[in-house]
Amino acid sequence: MIRPVRATALAAAAVSAALVVTACGSGSGKSTDDGAQGQAAPAAGAQDLNPHPAEDLKQGGVHKVSIQQWINQYNPNQTDGTQGDAAAITALVEPDLFTFDAKGVPHSNPDYLASAKVVSTDPQVVSYELNPKARWSDGKPLGVADFEAQWKALSGKDKGFQVASTSGYDQIAKVEQGKDEHEVRVTFATPFADWQMLFDPLLPASLNANPDSFNKSWAGQVPVTGNAWKVGRYDRTAKTITLVPDPAWWGEKPKLDKYIFWAMDSKARTDAYLNKELDEAPASTPEAYQRLKGDQGTDIRIGARWDQVTLSMNGARGPLQDVKARQAVALGVDREALAKVAGKDLPFRPKVVNNHFFMPNQEGYRDNAGSFGKRDVARAKKLLDEAGWKEEGAGKPRSKDGKPLALEYVMPADAVGLAEDQAKLTQQMLGEIGIKVDLRKVPGDDYFDRYVHRGNYDLTQFRQVDRIYRSSSYQDYRQPDGDNAFTNYGRVSSPEVDRLMVEASRTTDAAKQVALYNEADAKVWELGHSVPLYQRPQIIAIRKGLANTGAPGLGDENSVRIGWLK
């Protein structure tokens, strides 16, 4: 199953949106015309996959898709493995214990689980009944050793493991064998509401054996697999990763012969699709949509994904270490203007997001932006005054102690069109309150690994996607632990936000959980952690002959059913 990329980041400038998404469900598969422009974004649960039964599909064929960079780390739980394209590939080749329906509700995947359920609430105990046929590519059966090793690696107790998130794993008391080798029992020290989030994907014990194997053994490769697909070839020169069906797979066989991922610049993706070198391409930016919508033999498929475009602020260096400076940035940016630019010529307008944890079309959403919800130049200037940054005259940056107020906005070198336009707009807006913004383009393959993940920026724009399990967001806002910032790349946090998010993850009362996340969200706004901009449209251009793939929204695509119509 291709699943949403849970709790990862994607470059806003260049994203292979369709690769990292999901699900089975209904959709028209018909092109969308401009008559829909200005309509509301699709409701949660909306998806468009061109669904067809297996008997309608040809056996064989190749599906060629794009990714935004060469993959250097395939361990999705390691700090450098959180980039979305890497996690999407890993999800195709590793055990996917739960699949998601159109509403984002998890269900046990029978290829791996006969059942998974809470068998005790005090303490909370989860029983996993494993499919006896499920095996790793090295021949070993899935079992308690894999669960135990993953728990210990991600518990946060051994700081040698460079983990992206400990959420949920740090609440486990023990992992043990159940009645036989096919049952695993996980006992929690404190309740964990999003328990289905854990062990998904399940990874082999060999990866999690020790810090060295965890941090390095999956760098640039996937040594052990356990799904319908395996890696057939890595071609660094051509920048392609080719997946092929695994003959040892015990479930339904894939329809396709090959699934090819091709790393390329965003500016090349639309041309590659129009030249029939790719079978799908993102059409979520105005320039891409206008070029792709009228292509003969192309469907435009639309879904509702958890997909937030975010302006990240680095509170660990320079002027943005001061909360008042961060708040001034939040007030200096006109989010409505950025969303309007993003929605120009699209079939619907992106909606500004006033919540870090919920999308506007999602149950539980509440506007917590308060006084930071609208651009306020006068208040932004007042905050900078209070922070000691003095005005130097029209068109000049403010200064303090003889130094100008200057921030570095880092972006991938292939950022063109919408991404570049928005960067320049942000530069202009912040210039109006006395902040000089220098735009710096860096190599696309280095953008996450050397800049975002390392905090080598003052401002940057990327996408946060698929926070369907709300506790997965904890890693984005939690307090760093020494050198490990988890995915809180700007290192902005507080004990109060930590407390509220941990409490939310430990309550099984859905209404109380929503209230706690909204309370935490209000505090996150006050911290000036980051600026949620808008919900990014999920709009995919795809060949009409491709079935069971496209825009799955909150759900999962069944990768073995993706194929070409007869």
UniProtKB/TrEMBL annotation:
<dbReference type="GO" id="GO:1904680">
    <property type="term" value="F:peptide transmembrane transporter activity"/>
</dbReference>
<feature type="region of interest" description="Disordered">
    <location>
        <begin position="26"/>
        <end position="61"/>
    </location>
</feature>
<keyword id="KW-0732">Signal</keyword>
<dbReference type="GO" id="GO:0042597">
    <property type="term" value="C:periplasmic space"/>
</dbReference>
<dbReference type="GO" id="GO:0043190">
    <property type="term" value="C:ATP-binding cassette (ABC) transporter complex"/>
</dbReference>
<dbReference type="GO" id="GO:0015833">
    <property type="term" value="P:peptide transport"/>
</dbReference>
<dbReference type="InterPro" id="IPR039424">
    <property type="entry name" value="SBP_5"/>
</dbReference>
<feature type="compositionally biased region" description="Low complexity">
    <location>
        <begin position="34"/>
        <end position="48"/>
    </location>
</feature>
<dbReference type="InterPro" id="IPR030678">
    <property type="entry name" value="Peptide/Ni-bd"/>
</dbReference>
<protein>
    <submittedName>
        <fullName>ABC transporter family substrate-binding protein</fullName>
    </submittedName>
</protein>
<dbReference type="InterPro" id="IPR000914">
    <property type="entry name" value="SBP_5_dom"/>
</dbReference>
<feature type="domain" description="Solute-binding protein family 5">
    <location>
        <begin position="113"/>
        <end position="473"/>
    </location>
</feature>
<feature type="signal peptide">
    <location>
        <begin position="1"/>
        <end position="23"/>
    </location>
</feature>
<dbReference type="Pfam" id="PF00496">
    <property type="entry name" value="SBP_bac_5"/>
</dbReference>
